[in-house]
Amino acid sequence: MLVIQDLTKQYGQITAVDHLDLVVNKGEFFGLLGPNGAGKTTTIRMISTLTPLTSGQIAVAGQTVNRNLTEVKRKIGVVPQHNNLESEMTAWENLELHGRLYHMPKKSRRERIDELLEFTGLVERAHDLARTFSGGMKRKLMIARALMHQPELLLLDEPTVGLDPAVRRKMWDLLRNLSQGGLTVLLTTHYIEEAEILCQRVGLMNGGRLVELDTPARLIKKVGKVVVEYFERGETKGVLFETREEALALAAKLAGSVKIRSSNLEDVFLQLTNRRVGE
Amino acid sequence: MGLAAIMWQEYVYFKRKFWSITLGSMISPVLYLIAFGWGLGGGMHGGGGDYINFIIPGIVGLTTMTASFSAIGNSINISRLYEKTFEEFMVAPLNMWVYAIGKVVAGAFRGLYSGWLIILLALVFRTKIDIHPYFVLMMVLNCLTFSAIGFTVGILIKSHADMAKFSNFIITPMAFLCGTFFPLAKMPFLLKNLIWLLPLTQTSLGLRSRGENIWNRTMHPLILVLYFGLVLVLGVHYCKKAE
Ligand SMILES: Nc1ncnc2c1ncn2[C@@H]1O[C@H](COP(=O)(O)OP(=O)(O)O)[C@@H](O)[C@H]1O
Ligand SMILES: [Mg+2]
């Protein structure tokens, strides 16, 4: 569905994306996981034609992506990292404008608006101005807007950043429902839990490169399933193990507070990048 | 279809902001009419006839200029740099020519709207104003030209401050110098000829052109069309590459 070949983006001296190769299959829920500055947004912006490439190629459904090729743009839906709703327009008007821009006939446009307002739980606020919405509602409206024209590929750039935990959980439910309809989703996040819950495959990005690519479960297995966490000389340390027995053996030798738990994507990340996510 | 989408959005915005747009675009023309018409104009004569009758076309020219320019310039600049809604149009399956033309035509409508408001005001102030098809043509071309300039400037600038700079250094001087409040003939030779080349000068001359020869009456719209075309091509060119 999405094929990225040798993609590079240079901002002067900074290499935001560094020879990235990536294939996302049809119907897949794919996660790009990485700390701030890893190059996730730049990648999404290049796929959605907002940022010109320095070199490399991007194809969606077999067609090269370019600002001036309108056919392929219709197959893509984008939810950017920041709010970009028309703040002086209502939720309904925002969706209507999108439908018109994507050449949807009136009837299907209106039906789709009702359907998506329902799906995102915004029916009651349909005729309020977007600027009066809370952060979570704005994000939902942006998702509804990106889905208006029934894209084949949905790009979600950190869809839950800045939302409180309860809203984030609701958002996850909403996003999970999406992929059941056969839509291909590329999501970026720096929340490991998010990738673990939503994504079938995860690419770990750091410094503009893909450092690892696999299913969340296999990535976790790769670095070890069990973590022993202990506190020593003012910092928390974690050691990863294949089996619980090995972990217990270490734990027995340690004094003070020791915690044994299953590893998660965060541990994978730490192990592979020697860096805490978000730092 | 894309064109209709953009025009529809501008229409929704206009409807929502109707009173602030209407009242807002009447303030400066009313002040000009009071200051230059009643205040200064009582005894002055310029360009033949009463001064107030002389300056009305000038005020029409400069108001339609600023209205078109800032409607579109600010809309693009806010959409690009502040609200980021520009991205929605860049991502959409929309030809950048269609986007540009939609925005420019919508901006020109805003200019025309304020143009007609002044004409109404002028009637209230009981001035003599001569509206004929050529006058309307010049008004429309002026709106389109400055709307296109607003579009291109909005695409090219890097910050909100740049927009204010462009207004201060280009638009405002034109508003006063381009044959709006006094005839070009009163200026020194070199300056006069430089200013003659500016689009608003062509509008001022065109709006008052009753009695001019056919050569001049062809030049005015032609020069405006030239400006319009050049600026629009430039704007679309950069729009295709804008980040
Ligand atoms: N418009 C830009 N100009 C210059 N540098 C940029 C620009 N956008 C992003 N960068 C740089 O590119 C790198 C990757 O940024 P980004 O793609 O936003 O990362 P992420 O979304 O993973 O946090 C960062 O070092 C950032 O500073
Ligand atoms: Mg980002």
UniProtKB/TrEMBL annotation, chain A:
Record bears the keyword tRNA processing = no
Q: Which GO terms describe its cellular component?
A: plasma membrane
Q: Tell me which EC number(s) this protein carries.
A: 3.6.1.3
Gene3D superfamilies the record matches: P-loop containing nucleotide triphosphate hydrolases (3.40.50.300)
Which residue intervals define the domain ABC transporter in the entry?
2-232
| InterPro entries, per database record | AAA+_ATPase, ABC_transporter-like_ATP-bd, ABC_transporter-like_CS, ABC_transporter_ATP-binding, P-loop_NTPase
Question: Molecular function (GO) terms listed?
Answer: ATP binding; ATP hydrolysis activity
What sort of enzyme, by top EC class, is this?
Answer: hydrolase
Q: Where in the cell is it found?
A: Cell membrane
Q: Which UniProt keywords apply?
A: ATP-binding, Cell membrane, Hydrolase, Membrane, Nucleotide-binding, Translocase, Transport
User: Has the keyword Transferase been applied to this entry?
Assistant: no
The entry sums up its family as follows:
Belongs to the ABC transporter superfamily.
Extract the PANTHER family matched here. ABC TRANSPORTER ATP-BINDING PROTEIN, ABC TRANSPORTER ATP-BINDING PROTEIN NATA
Q: Which protein are we looking at? A: ABC transporter
Q: Which organism is it from?
A: Acididesulfobacillus acetoxydans
Automatic annotation (TrEMBL), chain B:
- Record localization: Cell membrane; Membrane
Q: Where is the ABC transmembrane type-2 domain?
A: 20-242
What's in the GO CC field?
Answer: ATP-binding cassette (ABC) transporter complex
Membrane topology term:
Multi-pass membrane protein
Q: Does the keyword Kinase apply?
A: no
Mind telling me which Pfam families this protein's record contains?
ABC2_membrane
Q: Print the keywords alphabetically.
A: Cell membrane, Membrane, Transmembrane, Transmembrane helix, Transport
The reply to whether Plastid figures as a keyword in the UniProt entry is no
List, alphabetically, the InterPro entries matched. ABC-2_transport_permease, ABC2_TM, ABC2_TM_bact-type, ABC_2_transport
- What GO terms are given for molecular function? ABC-type transporter activity
Primary localisation category: membrane
List the transmembrane segments: 21-40, 52-76, 97-125, 131-157, 169-191, 219-239
Annotated PANTHER family: INNER MEMBRANE TRANSPORT PERMEASE YADH, INNER MEMBRANE TRANSPORT PERMEASE YADH-RELATED
Spell out the family assignment given in the record's similarity comment. Answer: Belongs to the ABC-2 integral membrane protein family.
Identify this protein by name.
Transport permease protein
Organism name: Acididesulfobacillus acetoxydans
